[in-house]
Each structure stands twice: as structure tokens, then as C-alpha cells.
Amino acid sequence: MALVNPYLQVDGLAKRIGERVLFEDVSFGIAEGQHVGLIAKNGTGKSALLNILAGREGHDGGRIVYRRDVEVGYLEQSPAYPPEFTVIEACFHHGNAVTNLIREYEKCMATPGNPGLDELLDRMEREKAWDYESRAKQILSKLKIQAFDQKVATLSGGQLKRVALANVLITEPDLLILDEPTNHLDLEMIEWLEDYLKRSKLSLLMVTHDRYFLDRVCSVILELDNETMYAYKGNYSYYLEKRQERIDASNAEVARANNLYRRELDWMRRMPCARGHKARYREDAFYELEKVAKRRTEEKSVALEVKSAYIGSKIFEADYISKSFGPGKVVLKDFFYNFSRYEKMGVVGNNGTGKSTFIKILLGLVKPDSGRVVVGETVKFGYYSQEGLAFDEQMKVIDVVRNIAEYVDLGGGRHLSAMQFLQHFMFSPKDQQNYVYKLSGGERRRLYLCTVLMQNPNFLVLDEPTNDLDIVTLQVLEDYLRNFKGCVIVVSHDRYFMDKVVDHLLVFQGQGDVRDFPGNYTQYREWKDEKERFEREQQKAVTHKPKEAAAAQKPRAAENGQKRKLTFKEKREMELLEQEIAALEEEKKDIEEALCSGTLSVEELTEKSKRLPLLNDELDEKSIRWLELDELAG
Fold this sequence. Notes:
Layout: E1 8-17, E2 20-30, E3 35-40, H1 46-53, E4 61-66, E5 72-75, H2 87-90, H3 97-109, H4 117-126, H5 132-142, H6 157-170, E6 175-179, H7 187-199, E7 203-207, H8 211-217, E8 220-225, E9 228-232, H9 236-270, H10 277-293, E10 316-324, E11 330-338, E12 344-349, H11 355-362, E13 370-375, E14 381-384, H12 397-402, E15 407-411, E16 414-417, H13 418-424, H14 429-432, H15 441-453, E17 459-463, H16 471-482, E18 487-491, H17 495-501, E19 504-508, E20 514-517, H18 521-543, H19 546-559, H20 568-597, H21 602-632
Helix pairs in contact: 3-4, 5-6, 9-10, 18-21, 19-21, 20-21
């Protein structure tokens, strides 16, 4: 993908770890203003590639060329800062032109005579360095970081990632490199960042598993597959379509090569050792053909056909449970819910609203302040948690699984050995001999998911399952959960994943306010946007009441001497208006009660939300006309 005068040009890049080739002969470019998404399976070198581009890691071949004047910002997957730093000090930590200039200015002010102060003041003005701290605080606030003097050592992993994100955004680089920017962000922040990057003119290269984010932000997709880089000039939806075309074409080529290969192999076996020039040419062609015939381009499927244990009609009930951490931190307040068989529930809400605490109460890991959780006798939980990656680092992958079971029951009398089961999770026989400490973050997550599912649970509780999983694994997990014969609760900030898996949502709004919404995340957002639009319209209507509009016409009516008796037609119109207004007000009341009931389907919610503003307009119009006639009647 060679570009004219690119911000970044990569040619023939190669990277190996020991004998393992991550990628080789990788070439691509990023132009000014281009938004590029990088997709690859876990363990194939996505983070390594970004580290190489950011100068944090070496490479084994090829070259990387940045345009001379380009400023680069990098958000790494696991950022780190000196623990004694405060949040605001961390934002000045990673050097860039502005922070270096501020340090230069501070050093100058601390030096007797302030040498070079005039020049520094001019540069501070040109670089807008005086605004740097206020910009940092503004972006930190957007990312829900308010305690600017809090020590970095006391931050959670999610808070630390948000501080690092603020750090790269405030530098306003020409090229921004982001490694999993949406991890640890809640939905509100993800949508804010998505909108920020969509509108931004900076160049962007990012790795993310958030498919809506990719679709809406990126205009080019790079795919690292089988040690080779492929480029698709379009968003994620376009990439999916064209990638399938590429795979189909490649599979067809392999099938043709296989047919020819069998014939040529027979010729090779029959030919005597002494061959002429033509025979040697055909022999060379045979070896090239063999490479194509043995090439594997079919998708490796992760067919998660794991049997779930039988689940009875009584699942479990949250019986008016309450939980708070002091007066200012209410998680649940008299929460009642009776789970149904095969129910698939999504849990959404901003960070800190109590989603993970809610899960732990249901599982008996945290006690409620009041109320109780009643679990059915046949329920067998499978819990995938954010903190659940507690493996022995010195164990081999295969031994981690064998410690749980030598064989996995697939149902219908079918079984898989531990080795076969791991292959379904894209761990090749060679990969299974790897030690846990050698696995990437995504490979660890995949192994953890494997250990949860192989125990045949009938009630899956998944707390942020999508973090660090690659898109291929996510697609297969989605298919598995849709067909899962049991109950599912998913806590996730991955909107695409939620849309594919859940049939309704629990929305945590903070301070114990939990709402049940009958639909997936996109349907919830559409309803919420429509509701907010209606509330804005209502607010406008309050400031422009029909009576005020009619009252504004009173002086004009008196001035023009328009007081008179109504005609028969006008009297009849007024009577009809009274009936119509009464009917419209009754309809409005019914709709408003229905919208607050929590019992409507998604289609009914959408229909009534659209009807309400039209109803208000009609009421306003008829009310103004009635007031006009009433004024004329004197």
C-alpha cells in the first residue's frame, strides 16, 4: 500500500521470536488524515507491530520511515507510570514537544537571571503551552477522572488506561497509534471517544476488538494473516465482505492446485532419474505447485459444541436484595428478579454503577445487606471473571486443561480429548506445549474461556468476556452463546457482542436505579435517543405554551375590533375541537404511562416514542385554534 508522501511508510518488515515467525515482508503506509484499523488473531503480533512502530521494540528486517515533521502519540495496551506520580503529573510524563518546552521554561525560571526567557515565552505562546494543563483536566474529566492529585499507585487498571488515553489525546499528535483503546472504558466513554476520533483530522492506526468502533471510525482495514498483511480500503463491514471473497478465491486456487498436484505427483514418481531440460522445468514447476496445494487458507473454526448440564424450571430468584457501600454508593435497592429458563441477559451501565458487584451477589461471592438469592437445585454456574486468569505460569497449556478433565463431553455420546478440545480453541498441538508465561494476553483469555466452558455449566456468567479476545474468537463465542441451552448473563462494553447475544438488558443507572429493557443494546440506544429528543421537545413546549401564543394574539384581536358572535360553522368547529383535544390528551396520558411501565416490546416503545412528539404538535395546533375562537366569542 505505497502512498504519495505518507506520514508513515513500512517496507518489508519482519519479526521473529526465537524460531517463531510473527510476520515477514509486511508493507503498508498511512496517509495524512487516514483512519486505519489493524485486525489479526491473538498471538500473531499485533501488539508487537505497534511496539515496533512506536520504537519500543526492535525488528528483524525491513524499514520504517516517518515523515520528518510528524508527531506520533502511542497508547500501549498496559501503560505504566512511576507510582509516586499524581494523575496530572502522569499527563506530563511521556515527553512530547509541549511538555519538554514546559520543563525547559520551568528550568529557566529556576535559573538565576532566567537565560533565554524571552525566546521561551514566544515559543510557549506559539505552542499554546499555557493551556496544556487545562486541556489535560478537560479530557480527564471527559474520561471520568476527577481526582487530579490522586496517586497513580492507587488507580485501578481501568483508571490507569484512561489516564494514558488522556495523555496521548492532549498532545494532539499528527499520528495516533492506539492498542485496544476501548478496554476498560464504559459505553458512554466509548461513544464519546468514537465521536471524538470520527471528527478528528489526525491520522490513526489502532488495534481494537470493538467492531462497531472499527466500522464507524476506520476507513482502511489492515489484516495480518498467515504472516502476511492484506489491505482493504473500506470500513469493517466492507472488510468482512472482501475478506470472504479473498478466502473463497484462495480456497478455489488451492482446490485447483490439488487436482493438478495429484497428476504431477504421479508423473514425478514414474519419471526416471535422468531428466532433460523440459523435464527439469516441469520438476521445478511441480515444487511451486506443491507449495500452493499445501497452503491452508480455510478458516480455522472454533466449534464450541460443548454440552451443557440439564437445567430445571426453577432457575434462581433475586428476592428484594439491597446493597450499598455507605450512603453515597447504593448498588441495589429492593431489587427483585426471577430468572427464566434459557434467558440471555445483558448488563450495561457506566463504570462504578455496581455491575460486577451485582454479579458477585448473584453468585454468592458478596453478601447483600438485605434480601436473599434463591438458586435452583439443577443450576451449575460457569463464571468468567475479569480477575479469573490465575494460572500457574510454569504449566503447559495442555496440562492446564488436563487438570480439569482428560475428556470433554460434547453430548450425544461424543467426547473429545483435552488435546482435541484445545484445537477447537485454535491451540495447535505445538501451541499446547507452550508454557503459560509465553502466551499473549488474548491467548490467556482464550485458554481461560476454554477452562470455563469445558466444565459443562448450564448458567454462564460472563464479566467482560470480550477484553483481549480476537474477533475470530468473539464471532465463535457469539454463535455458541446464541445456541447455548441454558441461562446467560453478560456484562460487557462491547456493543456488537451484546447485540448478537442478549435478548434484554438490565441498565444500571447508578444509586440503585436498575431498569429492565426488552431488547439489545442498539435498540436501547435508539429508544434512549428518542426519549431524550422527546424530553427536549417537551422542554421547548414549556417555554412556548399554547396559551402564551394565543395571549400574544389578544391585543391584535382587540385592536382590530374582531370581537363578535361566532358563526354556526365556528361554533361547530369549537365543539369538535373540544372533543378532539380531550381525546388527544387521553391518548397522550396513555402513551406516557405506557412508556414508564417497562412492559412494552421494543417495537411498541419505538412506535409510541415516535407518536408522542407528533401528538404534542397536534395538541398545540388545536389548542391555539380553540383559544382563537374563544377570544372571538368574547
